[in-house]
Amino acid sequence: MKISLRVKYILLFLLLCGRVYAQKFTINETWLFQQANTSATQTVSFPHTWNDRDVMDDTPGFYRGPATYTKNTYISADYKDKTVYLYFEGANQVTDVYINGRHAGNHKGGYTRFAFDITALLKFGETNEIRIEVTNAHDATIPPLSADFTFFGGVYRDVYLDIREKVHISPEDFASSGIYIRTPKVNTQSAEIEIETLLNNKSGARHDVTVEHRILRPDGKEAGKKVVQEALAPGKTGHRIAQKFIVQNPALWSTETPQLYRVITTVKDRKTGKVWEENSTAFGLRWFHFDVDKGFFLNDQPLKLIGTNRHQDFKDKGNALEDAHHIRDIRLLKAMGGNFLRISHYPQDPLILEMCDRLGILASVEIPIVNAVTESQEFLSNSVHMAEEMVKQNFNHPALIMWSYMNEVMLRPPYKATDAAYAPYCKEVNRQARAIEQKIRDLDPARYTMVAFHGSVKSYEDAGLFDVPMIIGWNLYQGWYGNRFSDFDRFLLNYKEKYPHKPTIISEYGADVDSRIHSFHPERFDFSVEYGDLYHEHYLKTILKFDFLAAAALWNLNDFHSEIRKNAVPHINSKGITETDRGPKNTYYLYQANLLKTPFVKIAAWENRAGIASGAGSSLQPVKIYSNGPLVAVFHNGKKVGDVTINDGTGTLNIAFVDGINQVEARLPEENIADIRRVHFTLLPEKLNAGFQELNVMLGTRRYFEDKETATVWVPEKPYERGSWGFIGGEAVRPKTRFGSLPAAEINVLGTELDPIFQTQRMGLESFRADVPPGRYAVYLYWADLSALEDEEIIPYNLGNDTLVEETEPSVMDVLINGKKVLDRYHLAEEGG
Fold first, then answer.
1. From CA 20, how far away is CA 327, in angstroms rounded?
2. Which residue of 183, 215, 242, 629 has the fewest CB atoms within a 10 Å radius of its CB?
């Protein structure tokens, strides 16, 4: 048997004037992988996670523990007089590396980069064994302790061999580039630029070097050049060189014109002229500030920041994404019209900020202190270390304007407010926040700091956190986790009155949407597309109205894995405006309609619909249109059916759908652009006469469900009418919570991916009647035993909306068709499971 292996081999090198001075290439392929809980081995390639499948199965929990990757690789004899680093873009979360059985280094934290000098451990001109031991087991000394996302284990980003000359720019300052570019003063006339370079001399001899910096404008023309001479002692690392420049008439970086300068750094031997290293570093010239009343200003121009948060995972891949996935996400954000990205809740692949620089998207990034802290110096030390890694690794990006370090840290304190230990805990949270804040400000006084709070003002007052960061971020979900949409507006106005001198952003807001679920009677927690529409339409309007809100990042760019959740799509947080495979939802179009400056129109119709005939062989149903134009012409099957007036990016028109294929077209009359959507409509006759073909009904709900794989549409229940169909008797099940009831059960239904079909019921049903014409029919009865709910872990992110477990009787039923018993005393739990 012949096996062919796809190999991805990334070579990163600097090629200037036809010369190569440094090599950095991946060693991602063909690692022997083994989890500690099994003797089985398999061959894998990086990026890799061992949780891409088990986080979506029906077994609660996912593997959190150690695993090993082993690879034999040949190290060329040409590298004997070089310095060799092993460089990781990310591994979750504690990593130990061994070269030929000898320990090369340890790294704690799952989201920052790290590098080890492995030169002394290598055998040149021979095959070397590299062994990587990684664990994603819970560790109370390492953030995050818990979170509403899955802690995938593995070496889930690229791994490189980084080959340098003995004299080189240092990658050992927290795995940074070794070059730090500051722009302390920028205006339209001139820009001050400070360049700090760290040099290593890994040889046993002194080297006298010249260091040249050339600044290139965005058009490639030289804007400045300086040369300094330095003496590097044997074994010296981190030797600091600083140079200053003035650039006249700078080309400014902005969201509309993201112009990038470059610094070409050349290190030469003074005696021989040998080039030790040449490096190119991108940067931008801009200035910005936050105003407590007027919001954000870039280059002295007001700019409302609107965008998303982003998690680094994808359908069937977990967090082990290819570079193309990262690039696509930022392009999706730009295509939405977004100009802001909150990189949550941890530093992500270096491509994310590189793409923000190139596309003109402003950003914040944070370390993963989520929900709570551990009251220990070791936890704080690890947090401060992560903060320094984050700042130094991402220092030169013009897109980056904020550093953040805590998210909803008072959401899950280990003590109740009435406990004696609560006040000391709040004091410890404050101590840790101040230590991290000070570290970040010392490293980078030019950018702002931010901490994201959940909607409890008092909790953060208890911890004294309002006085610590420079910006307060609010994660607000009024109208989803409770209350009404208007409470969002009320909260913000009350907060602004109480804290008028603090710059403010909305760091999260959103509602869960399963794009398969629709409702003409949307309600909170029904996961329908239509409720998500209403939620975002209100929030976006308010955000755009309040000038003091400098920025808003909706939650989330994409649906993402959260193993603990039991919603319409179990193990998924579905608040994304795209799905896990990045298919857009209606809300993505809403933001395009409000943010794009180029003409835009989109039909927000489902591909498969169904409905009861309302006369003349058709069913009248509303269709929503998204556009940034004032008026949209709508056509149905080639015939114009009306003009839709657009307000705040949306408009609605009723269309009489007929059975079969319906083509809907929306046109911007003056722009010569249009959107066409083909809808397959299943027309259910008002009376089940000779034309009846198929009926799919969900009991206990007012929701529609679109099974996209089979193009099947399930319709909501209705009471029986003579000659038609419907239920007789019983009551729709609405699980109780502390704040009322839910329209569907919050439960993972085993053995199916169509959970919403089974998450609603009508209890005490006398019968379901369908007055079908005589004929031969297949009758499918689908049941799920929702009465078997047991106490499970409370999900703190539901903010009290977890289902209360009630005493219920087992589901036991007789099934009769036309009065003839076909199932007798069918016990669902015992026979169906």
1. 27
2. 242
